[in-house]
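[Protein data]
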Amino acid sequence: MAIEINGAASQATPRPGQCLRTFLREQGNFGVKKGCDGGDCGACTVHVDGTPVHSCIYPAVRAEGKAVTTIEGLATADGLHPVQEQFLEAQGFQCGFCTAGMMMTAATFDDEQRANLPRNLKGNLCRCTGYRSIADAVCGHGPDAHGPDAHDAGADVSGAQSPAAVEPKSGQLGDNVPAPAGPAVVTGTARYALDVPADQLPGLLHLKLVRSPHPHARIVSINKAPALAVPGVVAVFTHEDAPQQLFSTAQHEHYTDDPDDTRVLDNVVRFIGQRVAAVVAESVGAAEAGARALEVEYELLDAVFTPQEAILPGAPVIHGDKDAVATRIARPLDNVVAEVHAELGSVEEGFAAADFVHEHTYRTQRVQHVAMETHSAIAWVDDDGRLMVRSSSQVPFLVKRTLVRLFDLPEESVRVVAGRVGGGFGGKQEVLTEDLVALAALALKRPVQLEFTRTEQFMATTTRHPFTIKLKAGANRDGYLTALQLDVITNTGAYGNHAPGVMFHGCGESLAVYKCVNKKVDAQAVYTNTVPAGAFRGYGLSQMIFAIESAIDELAVGIGMDPLDFRLKNMVRPGDHMLSTTPEPEEDVHYGSYGLDQCVSLVRDALDRGKERYRAAGLDDLGPEWVTGEGAALSMIDTVPPRGHFAHTRVSLEADGRFAVDVGTAEFGNGTTTVHAQLAATALGTSAYAIQVRQSDTDLVEHDTGAFGSAGTVVAGKATLAAALELATRIQTVAASLTGVPLADCRLVDGAVECGDRSVPMKEIYDAARLQGVRLATDGNWGGTPRSVAFNVHGFRVAVNTGTGELRILQSVQAADAGVVVNPRQCRGQIEGGIAQALGATLYEEVKVDDSGHVTTDILRQYHIPSFADVPRSEVYFAKTNDSTGPLGAKSMSESPFNPVAPALANAIRNATGVRFGELPIARDKIYLALRDRTLVPN
């Protein structure tokens, strides 16, 4: 019997063993997403006879004779389904990759199910939002509704409104403009990397990888014959078929920022999961069978799994074949990728002057990005001989540059496009798929697709760098820091992608935010035979801030001072040098605005109000086994990465009187599309609704470094604003010539130019400009300097059960200095998402690697990311500042909300229990054991 899909009988028959997800996608239902293929994430949820199912584990044959509804079929001829309307109204998404599955689940809820979302949404995961906007959407709350049940005693969100630094105008700066892609996201028509109809890529081949089972080995031989004998296998590529040039998978404006220690395919493997060979076939199944059949002979080499062992004399050398100067590896024979050794003042004298000294070793763990869309790419050669690549990437222009360099191609012969990207968090600031599909497509002259499994994401992409930080800090009884000393070892894994940058950045603003004349840092980034680390939200700062902010609390307790007062006394203020490892501050980093003091006050006041709310509601007495406490932490981040971050944009008036903005920046839930539209609309006197943003295509604009380092607003946005302001002047000039009205009296309004008493429609302006030979398209450029600083302060009030180790977050508060907030609702969502991701990293997330170098947490059910039930509602407050360097006063606010969360929570637990947890994650069993050992737990 046929399967009915969205009301129409399908003529296709499922293959034996095929799951419903792949069957539906083959019929063009691209709203059905792959997030896990294990029934863990819910991104593939569809209805079968009205019941929501995870289609990735539902056999397609079981749907025969049944009615299947996907997100494409949820709406009716009368309009959107109510849940689609609610997700639009509440903006219940960011990257949107999980949204279709979330809505398909929620569309079946009755009132009783909506009343218990923690239970009924447990099968649907979101990595971006922090779930607050999803809850508002499912429950039908409007965009400004926060719900009376946000906390047991009611959340205080009085500071979550737009700051008074700007008066919002509809569709412009300060307004809660919805994401332009919203209608496409909620109807399943937003196109991600692999959402390409089959007829647009005739002859599509599929690539699968043979990966190393050994942590360190030399490949002796590879027998392709058994793989090529598998029906459907077209080709096998090994290190003998790939470019030999060394490069780094990490992508930065200057590729020399990272060591050249990687080959597309290497004859030496350095971690379990490293790619050994690429098998290309007519189907995914055939490629997988070919990969299993390939015969590889290895010569095993000694391996080392911890950085502490890797730097010992006689340790196995991981990249000993590399030349230090040519590859920019600091000390390859010692497994050291990069290092910094610096001292300001004299820490010895500083400790001698201290009345209290805190010493502790802090450790942070590997964390996976878990973007819901896995790494993927398609490559083909078009009719003109150009290499075309469609990729899930944060950095399409840098991907193009890398491919040009690797394959020795002319720049004009390569085009890279990123569709909508299903989450990034730094993980897609790499080249991990694009080089392989390019290799195969160039050789075979057919389209080739590669999509990672969730297990490959865990074992073979990148993670956050684990840090070990030996910290010593001193303070005097007057409340001043006297010395900060840190000995830092970071584990970069088998390759050094991002290792130098993460180490240097981590040792930067985390130290510079405090005034202390005596600072010493010794840091090393070290190779091990483990899964590589890479870029991750915060880029080293979160690890260092965890240690330093924990120490700040310990110093305050040690001298008998309130921790927030201690911070207020020692944190930098305008006029203070921001110093970390050099005696002079970064010459292009300035206090474009300063709201750190406001953030501290906002968090302190909110925690005081929260305590009073609980007391008034009678909820402050949890019982004799519960202890409560409060804690806070602060963070500072430069608004742009160092040494240049470039963007070129183009703004034009179109024939229909609307505007187009062409940008290089990718959209992956970071909200830059909306920001570009609002900045341009403000400059052009129109509304964001009148602006079409075209983006992330290397043919659109000259260059864009990419969407990382929180640069989407303050770099690309600055370029957009410059182009829009110039276009506004050109339009006014044309209008003045048409009307005879002085240029100064011509004012742009929505859809027209008002020249005295006359209103000239934009369509008329466009036609007149063509006749005059005036080009109504302008270019904007920005190079990322000068830079400012942004601030975040987080506070928690917690309760800890001394008998079980259970932790309850009673209140979560974050205050942010984002300058003039372009879109308050969107910025709040970024902060909430950062908090949720940081809570996971603080409490339970950990990529575990066993003693043989094997990743053991390689599926989602073994690696716990926050679900709906795990995330408390956070109060979000904005400082009222106006930045002198950012576009229209705005600052970055994408990475930084993550950074103060872990130490704030650790400080709150310390305040409640008296126990300092210096190692992440702070899991419940760790709390229980620590309290038991402190004899607080009854035996």
Q: What stands out?
A: Residues 330 and 338 are 5 Å apart (CA to CA). Residues 711-739 form the longest helix (29 residues).
